[in-house]
Write a structure and sequence with these properties.
By secondary structure, this protein is an alpha/beta fold. The mean pLDDT is 97. α1 crosses α7, α2 (63-73) runs parallel beside α4 and α6 crosses α10 (302-315). It has helices at residues 11-23, 63-73, 87-92, 94-115, 152-171, 193-202, 222-235, 252-262, 288-294, 302-315, 317-324, 328-336, and strands at residues 2-6, 28-33, 53-57, 77-80, 119-125, 175-180, 183-184, 207-210, 216-218, 220-221, 241-244, 249-251, 270-273. The chain has a domain at 2-187 and 222-247 and 286-300 and 329-337: Rossmann fold (3-Layer(aba) Sandwich). Strands 3-2-1-4-5-6-11 form a seven-stranded parallel sheet, with helices on both faces. A two-stranded parallel ribbon has the order 7-10. Bound molecules: nicotinamide-adenine-dinucleotide and 2'deoxy-thymidine-5'-diphospho-alpha-D-glucose. 2'deoxy-thymidine-5'-diphospho-alpha-D-glucose is lined by residues 85-87, 125-127, 181-182, 192-193, 196, 208-210, 215, 217, 252, 276, 283. 2'deoxy-thymidine-5'-diphospho-alpha-D-glucose (DAU) binds at residues 85-87, 125-127, 181-182, 192-193, 196, 208-210, 215, 217, 252, 276, 283.
């Protein structure tokens, strides 16, 4: 099968490509990625020379370029990982999120309509459901939970989901959507909580926790997300939404404490900074549907996953040092200094 993977130079798309190259070596993967600040061609270094892999630099919102690629490659499957993905950045520049996450998705869907495909898969997020109160641990997001977004990022992702479902109902494009909880693992851009805290701890820098560190996220090791997407693409029902998550809820403070403990460091580097605007309190996925319909369950628990992730950052310093020594410094100063 020929698969276009958009956003494959990013965190989850990059992991997906590495895992799928091993799992389905018979497939041909074409990665379409604009190489924004979050895209890193070094993430794909190991697959770049493989005969069944091709990298194409391009913007998913560039209609002419996307249509040209589809006309040339005639893909069987399209998996859309490409997005502006950081909530904090969506507070600084919402429009960019609308452009990539909504317009980009609509261009891909139009290309799928025009050229015909077996499956379009939209990689979405649990953030489209909004948040849950901290004092109701009995509540979880199901696929029926109404969309109720908080940030420009989540609003743009929810809009894209609605478009995907509209193209299924109105035009019969064979789509699926997955809505996953927070991922962590190798190749995670160091602006997100877990890689930022690991990198800062390794550099003996302060660890900035928003608010009181009470907010809860449901952490999933990235490999488990990738195997779930593969299952949905191959065996999931067209027109359906699947939640992906693993009952690995932690407060942000617990996550940071776990990282410090694993690194053998004390907690004196933790500093509490001004809260994120509109900060979602708790995310928690009910994964019953994907478990019952497709037999998916996460394999890696948080304790094992965080150990593996920390080891990866210790053994791949060059990968993240190139990032944190570059233009990322300007972002970091704007986001954290004087906060
Ligand atoms: P990321 O920011 O690490 O990577 C995004 C990739 O998309 C980068 O390689 C970037 O260059 C590329 N890209 C951005 N704009 C583009 C455009 N206009 N055209 C082509 N390529 C473009 O993101 P991620 O964390 O890997 O997330 C991937 C997807 O998974 C996103 O859709 C995100 O919403 C979703 N998601 C992420 C998480 C998480 O915890 N990271 C959880 C659930 C869902
Ligand atoms: O739930 C899925 C979502 O998870 C994805 O859709 C997003 O693309 C992804 O970025 C992630 O969103 P979050 O906002 O939950 O992730 P982030 O790593 O930015 O923050 C996790 C929590 O940690 C959140 O409560 C904010 C907090 N935080 C984050 C940073 C960067 C801090 O306390 N300090 C920080 O410096």
């Amino acid at each position: 099968m020929k698969i276009i993977v958009t956003g494959g130079a990013g965190f989850i798309g990059g992991n997906y490509i590495h895992i799928m190259q091993k799992k389905h070596p018979e497939d041909e993967i074409i990665c379409l990625d604009a190489l924004t600040y979050a895209g890193n061609i070094e993430t794909l270094a190991q697959v770049m020379q493989k005969p069944n892999f091709k990298f194409v630099k391009g913007d998913i919102a560039d209609r002419a370029a996307v249509f040209k690629l589809f006309a040339k490659e005639k893909p069987d499957i399209v998996i859309n990982f490409a997005a502006e993905s950081h909530v904090d950045r969506s507070l600084l520049n919402p429009e960019l999120f609308l452009q990539t996450n909504i317009i980009g998705t609509s261009v891909l869907l139009d290309a799928c309509r025009e050229y015909g495909i077996k499956r379009y898969h939209q990689v979405s997020t649990d953030e489209v459901y909004g948040d849950l109160p901290l004092d109701r641990p009995d509540l979880f997001f199901t696929e029926e939970t109404p969309l109720h977004t908080s940030s420009p990022y989540s609003a743009s992702k929810a809009s894209a989901d609605l478009l995907v479902l509209a193209y299924y109902r109105t035009f019969g494009v064979p789509v699926t959507i997955s809505r996953c909880s927070n991922n962590y693992g190798p190749y995670h851009f160091p602006e997100k909580l877990i890689p930022l805290m690991i990198v800062n701890a390794l550099k003996n820098k302060p660890l900035p926790i928003y608010g009181k560190g009470e907010n809860i996220r449901d952490w999933l090791y990235v490999e488990d997300h990738c195997t779930a997407i593969d299952l949905i693409v191959r065996s999931g029902k067209v027109g359906e939404v699947y939640n992906i998550g693993g009952h690995n809820e932690k407060t942000n403070l617990q996550v940071v404490q776990a990282i410090l403990k694993e690194l053998g460091k004390g907690e004196e580097s933790i500093c509490y900074v001004a809260d994120r605007l509109g900060h979602d309190r708790r995310y928690a996925i009910d994964p019953t549907k994907i478990k019952h319909e497709l037999g998916w369950e996460p394999i890696t628990g948080f304790d094992e996953g965080i150990k593996k992730t920390i080891i990866w950052y210790i053994t791949h310093k060059l990968w993240w040092q190139r990032i944190v020594n570059g233009e990322y410094q300007t972002y970091y100063k704007n986001m954290y200094y004087g906060r």
